Amino acid sequence: MKRFLLPLAVFAVVVGFLAVGLTLNPREVPSPLVGKAAPDFSLPQLYETEKTFSPKDMAGKVWLLNFWASWCNGCKDEHPVLMQMAKSGEVPIYGVDYKDQRGEALTWLQQWGNPYPLVAVDESGRVGINYGVYGVPETYVIDKQGIIRYKQIGPIDQDVLHKKILPLVKELQTQ
Q1: What is the pLDDT of residue 26?
Q2: Which tens digits make up the pLDDT trace of 50-77?
Q3: Which residue of 5, 125, 157, 168 lies most exposed, with the fewest beta carbons within 10 A?
Q4: Helix, strand, or coil here: 142?
C-alpha cells in the first residue's frame, strides 16, 4: 500500500498544476516591458517611404502602438474597434505593419479603412522582437514619458477597450 502513496502524491500535484493552468487567461501573459521605457526604433513609413517614425516623435503624448499585418485574421477582428477609437479621437493609434508586403498592407488599409495617423513598416520583424511581440495583433499603451503602461496580446475588443485601455489612457493624460 505504501508503494502507491508516492506516485499518487505526484499525480495529485500534477493534477493541481493542470487545474490552475486551465483557469489562466493566455491573453494575459505578463510582459517584462510594462513599466519600462518603450524600445526606441526608427522605421520607414508605409505611405511616405522616405520618412521615418520613431517613438521619440511622440514624447509628451499618451498614445497606442499597434502591431498588425494584412495576413492577420485577429487584426480583422479588432479593426472595427480601432476605427471607432480613431474616430473618437480619444487617443492616437500608431500602426506598425509587421512582417508584411507593402502593397498588401496598402490594399488592406484601403479596403478596411485606416485608423492610424501614421504607419511604420517593420518588414524584418526586428522591432517586433524588441517589443516582445508574440504574434499580431499586439497593442501597447505608452505614456508621456515613453513608458509602456499596458500590453494587449491579441485583438482589442469592446470589453478590453472600455474596461482597460480607455480608463488607463484617461488617467495617464491627466498626469
Answers
A1: 55
A2: 999 999 999 999 999 999 999 999 999 9
A3: 5
A4: strand
Strands 138-142 and 119-122: unpaired
CA distances, 39 to each of 35, 36, 144 (Å)? 12, 9, 14
Superfamily the domain 29-174 falls into? Glutaredoxin (3.40.30.10)
Q: Which region holds residue 125: left if phi is over 0, alpha if psi is between -120 and 50, else beta?
A: left
Look at residue 167 in the predicted model and tell me its pLDDT. Answer: 98
Q: What is the pLDDT of residues 114-164, one digit of tens each?
A: 999 999 999 999 999 999 998 999 999 999 999 999 999 999 999 999 999
Residue 22 has pLDDT above 80, yes or no: no
Cα distance between residue 74 and residue 68, in whole Å: 9
Give Cα separations from 43 to 113, 128, 150, 166, 169 (angstroms): 22, 11, 22, 27, 25
Tell me the residue ranges of DSSP E strands in the chain: 43-44, 52-53, 63-68, 93-98, 119-122, 138-142, 148-153
Statement: the pTM of the whole predicted model exceeds 0.85: no
Q: What angle do CA 113, 165, 171 make, to 5 degrees?
A: 125
C-alpha cell at 118: 501614421
Where are the chain's structural domains? 29-174
Please give the distance of CA 3 from its chain centroid, rounded to a whole number.
51
